[in-house]
Design a protein that fits this description.
metalloendopeptidase activity; single chain; mainly alpha; disordered N terminus; Mito/Outer_Membr_Metalloprot; 51% helix; globular; 3 strands
Length: 282
């Protein structure tokens, strides 16, 4: 199981980072706030993602997620449905996932799922298609509040909503195919079939730009769900404190906490009204 988890962590974790920015212009808008000046204004996602069928990537993610659950269950590491921490996670997700479609219309059809895996490794992820997992080490080591958990969950959900895995899969395919072959494939209408979304999925890395994008979208999403966005600051303070000893895996290649705290502080004026509005309705 450790090998399965470590492979997944490399791809779907709060700490994944490290490749160049994926961008080739505008493309179809994914994010779609109700009001033009409502919340954080996020740029359009990479046009490259359109080269990879979203359905194929989501099917692959669902398969890998099922394998992870099976492995965890065989090791008695998959939390039962009545586990207090899992109930807590699902309650937080239940406030966030209904809002996801305003960032990506596909999310309205996703079969959202969240599970808790008993592991000392501190991590969380959301695969394409809304498959979420938290590892108990993250909750136990940092003693996260509900608002802080929402910051983590929002960040991971944002990676799926912004289709970072889809864009990175496309970039990997472009690199391997070469310009001449791409031109032929485009002309024949077979471009999407040239990209492998199987085993390569777990080996992809998010860029620092993707991480920043997920920070902002996740912050916006959590605030709309009624979670205090100021918890993003305390979350990163806890992460920084944890990294002073032996840093958890999700911090090994991650952008620095102080920079992320500054970015959160910069955007608080945009998200605090969202939080206050949502909180007043609860």
């Amino acid at each position: 199981m450790r090998n399965v988890l470590s492979r997944l962590f490399r791809r779907y974790s709060l700490a994944s980072a490290g490749v160049l920015l994926l961008s080739c212009g505008s493309g179809t808008e994914v994010i779609s706030h109700v009001q033009a000046n409502d919340g954080i204004q996020i740029g359009k996602p990479s046009k490259l993602r359109q080269l990879v069928p979203a359905e194929s990537l989501e099917r692959q993610a669902s398969t890998e997620y099922a394998k992870l659950k099976q492995e965890a269950a065989s090791k008695r590491a998959l939390a039962p449905d009545n586990h207090p921490q899992l109930l807590r996670l699902r309650a937080i997700a239940a406030r966030m996932t209904p809002l996801a479609a305003q960032y990506n219309p596909r999310a309205a059809q996703w079969q959202w799922e969240i599970n808790l895996i008993g592991s000392k490794q501190a991590n969380a992820f959301c695969m394409p298609g809304g498959k979420i997992a938290f590892f108990s080490g993250l909750l136990d080591e940092l003693q996260l509040s509900d608002d802080e958990v929402a910051m983590v969950m929002g960040h991971e959900i944002a990676h799926a909503l912004r289709e970072h895995a889809r864009a990175q899969t496309a970039k990997s395919g472009l690199t391997s195919l070469g310009a001449d072959l791409l031109g032929q494939l485009i002309g024949q209408g077979k471009f999407a079939g040239a990209f492998r979304v199987g085993g390569d999925l777990l080996n992809l890395r998010f860029s620092r730009d993707d991480e920043s994008d997920a920070d902002l979208v996740g912050l916006d999403l959590a605030a709309r769900a009624g979670f205090d966005p100021r918890a993003g600051i305390t979350l990163w303070q806890k992460m920084d404190a944890a990294s002073r000893g032996a840093p958890p895996q999700w911090l090994s290649t991650h952008p620095s906490g102080p920079n992320r705290i500054r970015e959160i502080e910069q955007h608080l004026p945009q998200v605090m009204p969202l939080y206050e509005r949502a909180a007043s309705r609860r």
